Amino acid sequence: MATDVEVMQHGTVEINGCCKKGPGYASPLEAMAGPKESLIYVTCIYTGTGRGKPDYLATVDVDPNSPSYSKVIHRLSMPYEGDELHHSGWNSCSSCYRDPSAARRYLVLPSLISGRIYAIDTQKDPRAPSLYKVVQPDDVIQKTGLAFPHTAHCLASGEILVSCLGDKDGNAEGSGFLLLDSDFNVKGRWEKPGHSPLFGYDFWYQPRHNTMISSSWGAPSAFTKGFNLQHVTDGLYGRHLHVYTWPGGELKQTLDLGNTGLLPLEVRFLHNPSEAIGYVGCALTSNMVRFFKNPDGSWGHEIAIAVKPVKVQNWILPEMPGLITDFLISLDDRFLYLANWLHGDIRQYNIKDPSNPKLTGQVFVGGVFQKGNSVLAEAEDGSTYQVDVPEVQGHRLRGGPQMIQLSLDGKRLYATNSLFSTWDRQFYPELLEEGGHILQIDVDTEKGGLAINPRFFVDFGAEPDGPSLAHEMRYPGGDCTSDIWI
């Protein structure tokens, strides 16, 4: 029996004989045994749709035994229009597990366009969250020069770190990391002066290796106008990973992923905090790049998964990339799941050998060349085809899979279909007219495999204020894309 720390059931820690518990779980494997999800919080967007309504946070009932299963049961509208809610994070997670004074109470909602950051109280009533505080963009810009906030992660200190993609004018040179205190007051920049990234987007830290790695989308002045391939040629989109000392904030290495690593977006380490391995999804070239620590302490990278482009007819280019816009790793580090937003499929890979992922499951849930669309895919023999995508509860599936979220036990995968309102309008204009949706995918964790759950469909085309776009999803108790272990 451990004398100092013993991990108990449901995340309680016994420290020097006294049971104490912070938020989250003692380990990723313990999290897998946590309670089954019953609610999901979803960022929903009216910005860019022309409906003149503020974005909102939806609460969705995902308890199959509930009479309101797969329904929106609450909507918290933001007090302003034009935000473009996007990603979300927590004020506290498993990184604060051994701090009994910490609580996973506030969902942090950075607004990609307006620059506001909302703190949402989920503790008073988890089914009906309420607004706690608004961090105004003028305060952030005045104190840090940062704008276009994206990813929020909690720190073990109780502070909150937010990646920002540029300055107020949309220049990538102004990107960096915003540090908020535990009550959402602006403290300043996290990185050392002169150590800002080339571009901003996502980040993940692995404290046992004293490392944080961030990724690169592009200059807000470019991506907010829609995707233009010329902007890639002009150097307005990223292809780098930035390796920082943690928690020191010194940029110690920049990994150039080259022309096979264009638009590296979501970045995740393996959940085991002892592992010095992670992945980043490179959207435009549709490669999953594995990064790893070398024996000399430097970091290297290699392509681990390559999604081949598809030759197409009646599209803007002769070849279509998969466009990997999101991926995640199961809490036991056994499986990696990715979403190809343009091709329309979700894939499951066994990553028991992290350097040699094996495809074990695939399901099409939309895409540009699904049956009923004008775009045709070309096979190697020159024949054309379209993918047969099933209807769910009488609904034709719109767009392609974008953000994904996995249940703690790894058996249910949820998928939304909106990327960013401007890009939605460009690639899937029907989303702005018909709205987004959430699907649930049943996961076979024994033999591998993915299948659409026909009982679950959340239709954001039927919202009271008109069709909205659905993006990031979070469980009240944390998940595999929010929680980091130290």
UniProtKB/TrEMBL annotation:
InterPro entries: Se-bd (IPR008826)
The UniProt record lists the keyword Coiled coil: no
Organism superkingdom: Eukaryota
Keyword flag Signal: no
GO molecular function, one term: selenium binding
UniProt-recorded name of the protein: Selenium-binding protein 1
Family that this chain belongs to: Belongs to the selenium-binding protein family.
UniProt source species: Nicotiana tabacum (Common tobacco)
Entry-linked PANTHER family: METHANETHIOL OXIDASE
Cleavable signal peptide: none
Keyword terms, alphabetized: Selenium
